[in-house]
Amino acid sequence: MNVKLLTAAVLAVLTGACAANATREKAAAPAQGATRESADAFVARVNETQRAQYPETASAQWLAVTYINDDSQRLAAKSNERALAQLNTFVEESRRYEGQTLSADTARSIALLKLGTSMPAPKDPAKLAELTQIASKLEGAYGAGTYCRDQGGKRECRQLGELEDVLRDPKASYEDQLDAWAGWHTIAQPMRGDYQRFVELVNEGAREMGYADAGAMWRSGYDMDPDAFRAETDRLWDQVKPLYSDLQCYVRGRLEKKYGARGQVEGKLPAHLTGNMWQQDWGNLWPILEPYKNVGSLDITAALEKQRAEALRQARAPASRAGPAPRTRCAWSARPTWRSRAA
Question: Taking the domains of the chain in order of start, what are their residue ranges?
């Protein structure tokens, strides 16, 4: 029975290897006649190959995050290795169309080919394999991350979801929230060395594709130069910064009201009190941020539309002899009392 199982396993591996080789040979075949393949045909071949390859990569990734162990990580790493190697080959092949007159769709498809992954891999096969192995290892470590502590004489271990529940709970104490936030972040410490190497490898891969680093490559995915994207982001931030500053001040005041002096750190919000493990938003703090208790849902859109309609009506009305039409009250003329307390 064991011999039969072993034979079946070997045949399955050999069959899969033959099929994978056949697929790669088919994908690479047109490259030998590079001068005869049009840009449109090249893009069609890339799409067909990646469409056929995606189910394998997605399945291996699903196994790796669902069943976290060395075997599933190995499968995911090898699958990613094949996919990234194929992507690098396509990027090299696409260079022969540089300077040619292409249709808008084909030119865009070739330009986006370099952005086909957020993890650009070096051309060196050994470094490519190292990158995919590190990535699978880091993802597995993150998924299996567990924080343990002694609680009431017993060993209590919790994973991310359970620790997030503590931060989301408006009744959780300051100490429990700090313990949950700090405890989760201890799982990252053993990953530091692998992550540093990961950064080195993806930056090398991005440079080989013609970018300054992986960050510049990521910023190139918005139909503008990466430096222009950075400048546009700064411009937009400057526009919303006054609103953010007011909101941050309001939140800080409410946290100080609940936690006293511990509700702020040098004017900043303590990370573990934001209701979110990564401080992405303050939505979970609504029970303590709600400005008007028991009022129900506030229809902000309707109120703003009414104010806009009134402002337009006044602007279009003819001015009287007594002077221009009266202005509506500025939004900042009646700031809430929390501003003076928290400033």
Answer: 2-145, 223-317+327-343
